[in-house]
Amino acid sequence: MTTNLIEARGLTKSYGDFIAVAGIDFHVAKGESFGLLGPNGAGKSSTMRIIAATSQRTGGDIKILDKDPNLHGPQIRAHLGVVPQQDNLDTELTVEQNLYVYGRYFGLSSNFIKNKIEELLDFAQLVEKRDVKVDALSGGMKRRLTIARALISEPDILMLDEPTTGLDPQARHILWDRLFRLKEQGVTLVITTHYMDEAEQLCDRLVVMDKGKIMAEDSPAGLIKTYSTKEVLEVRFGSERNAEMSDKLKPHCERIEVLPDRILMYADDAEKVLEEIIKQGIHPVTSLVRRSSLEDVFLRLTGRSLIE
Amino acid sequence: MSITTKPKTVKPYGALYVAEYRIRNMMRFKALIVMVSIGNPFLYLLSIGVGVGALIDSNNLIDGVPYLTFLAPALLANAAIAGGMDETVFPTLHGFKWGKIFFGINSTPITGSQIALGVFLAAMARVVFLVTIYWIVLYLFGALETSYSWLAIPTAIFAGACFAAMMLALAAKMENDNLFFTFISRFVIMPLFLFSGTFFPLSAMPIYLQWIGWISPLWHATELGRFLTYGREISNQMLFLHVAFLSVILIVGLFFAVRYYTRRLAK
User: Fold this and answer.
1) Which domain holds residue B68?
2) Inter-chain contact B266–A56, Cβ cutoff 8 Å?
3) Distance, CA of B225 to CA of A131 (rounded, Å)
4) Chain A contact present for B55, CB below 8 A
């Protein structure tokens, strides 16, 4: 028995001619919080659906809890909690009914579910909403309910596909707090996201995906260390002049990325770079010094920005 | 709070859990369901049975019985069919498309086949309920002549099951719900209702239209119903044929329902 809950080798998924997942290798250890980071269409959701044992792979191998999902779908799903990208709650039932019905699908006893519901309503901060129809909940509440629903069977792996997409900043932070608590309790999390701040907050280790392939794999800090500098200086000269300024700026930093609206200058001390270029008589319209993020890693790996 | 049990075995009753959910969902409309189940036969019997029946000269028996008696088994089977369709078409479209609920159910140990069968079973629960009430109303109107007319209840349910199974498959297969409603309901369901010997004997129709009745579960179930409620003379071979036809439709319908449900979920 390995300590890896998920092990994939050469995992492939194609729909006709279109290859969504192009032979990827990864593993997820028990208690780990593992992230799949990439832009829309990178193959994250396809990978998730294979792990969730609802979509069959077209090539390669994957073992989830030591079982092949193509052969043991229901047995594997009994151990998973799935939070899909789009909430698929029953909007006509109440919060409590949604949890109850879902627990029944796992064959759990009424008694077990009733106790568990109390615990989960509390966890999802929905105690007062228990008798409210799902239709009437806010986006953030629906999301928390979907997560609570996924936890009803005390899963060994909780899978979250874009957990905070479409939520306002406050709702996102509440959700992150809840997920962080689960992580502290030792729940194994598999998360997809295209938000680098989310990946940095929640993931112990992540793979960066693009066009169905894995571009890099490490901890968020490790990735930044390998693929970027400590800091970044963002300067703007107005969209006309950004391109022509880049040659003058190049000697002052380790690496430079010219984006349509701004120039990113990579250096370990960005403040110093800014001082230097001003000394040279180069005066950007705006300038910003910040720490490197996964966004920079992604830009480096793919030459494209994460959110397009 | 401490929770001690942590059951993780896959239970074989998946379809029943889905049926439980569907019935729970129907219960939100229980008052409406009861009202419609009672009101519908009353309206039909008053307007068509009694009203149209009065137009037809009372000496002028149809198939040897008063018009109301002739009509009753057809109405019974038709009610079963309508109920069976209601509880399969809408839940299927809702589950796959409008609310994507089936994808959530399929994230649990429940399989596509179990979802299809669960929706079917819940639909049948509704059909059993409404057919029983319908039969009681028919009885009160004096539309049933034999002492064993209650046997028409299972044959009507049989017809409802056939339609429920077919609609389950069709609704899962057709991803365009507009097409489903405009085409299937207007050009398939409606003609089956009108040309299945419902309001007059199939033999009264020109031969080139009679085939619609032959392929219609409604006609086969109505014939069985007429045999059971007023003793219409039907040969043993024909009785066997009616039962066989309905059985084939039911089995084929369920086979494809399970198949299309499973495929659509795995997409």
Assistant:
1) 14-266
2) yes
3) 45
4) no
Are the beta carbons of A84 and B101 separated by less than 8 Å? no
**Is residue B136 assigned to a domain?**
yes
Residue B215 lies in a domain: yes
Domains and CATH numbers, chain A: 1-79+156-221 (3.40.50.300), 88-152 (no CATH), 228-302 (3.30.70.940)
Q: Name the token pair of A297.
A: 């890693």
Q: Considering only residues 80 to 99 of chain B, which have any Cβ-Cβ distance to chain A shorter than 8 Å? A: 99
- Who among A73, A106, A115 is closest to B1 (CB)? A115
Note which residues in 109-128 of chain B have CB less than 8 A from chain A.
109-111
Q: What is the number of domains present in chain B? A: 1
The structure's pTM equals 0.86
Is the dihedral angle over the CA atoms B168, B173, B177, B183 positive or is it negative? negative
Per-residue pLDDT of chain A (308 residues; tens, 9 = 90+): 457 999 999 999 998 889 999 999 999 999 899 999 888 888 998 999 999 999 999 999 999 999 999 999 999 999 999 999 888 999 889 999 999 999 999 999 999 999 999 999 998 899 999 999 999 999 889 999 999 999 999 999 999 998 888 788 888 888 888 888 888 888 899 999 888 888 888 899 999 998 999 999 999 889 988 988 889 999 888 777 777 777 878 888 888 888 888 888 998 888 888 888 888 888 888 889 999 888 888 888 887 665 54
Contact yes or no for B197/B222 (Cβ under 8 A):
yes
Q: Is B62 helix (H, G, I), strand (E, B) or coil?
A: strand
- For residue A75, list chain B residues with Cβ-Cβ distance below 8 A: 10, 109
Establish if B1 belongs to a structural domain. Answer: no
Question: Are B108 and A86 an interchain contact pair (Cβ–Cβ within 8 Å)?
Answer: no
In this structure, how many other beta carbons lie within 10 angstroms of the beta carbon of residue B134? 28
Tell me, what's the ipTM?
0.83
**Residue B88 lies inside a defined structural domain of this protein:** yes
Residue B8 has pLDDT above 70, yes or no: no
- Cβ contacts of A116 on chain B, cutoff 8 Å: 3
Chain centroid to Cα B22, Å, comes to: 16
- Mutation target vs A (from B108, B111, B113; most A CBs, 10 A cutoff): B108
Which residues 197-236 in chain B show a CB within 8 A of chain A?
none
Size of interface A-B (CB pairs under 8 A): 94
Q: Are B99 and A54 an interchain contact pair (Cβ–Cβ within 8 Å)?
A: no
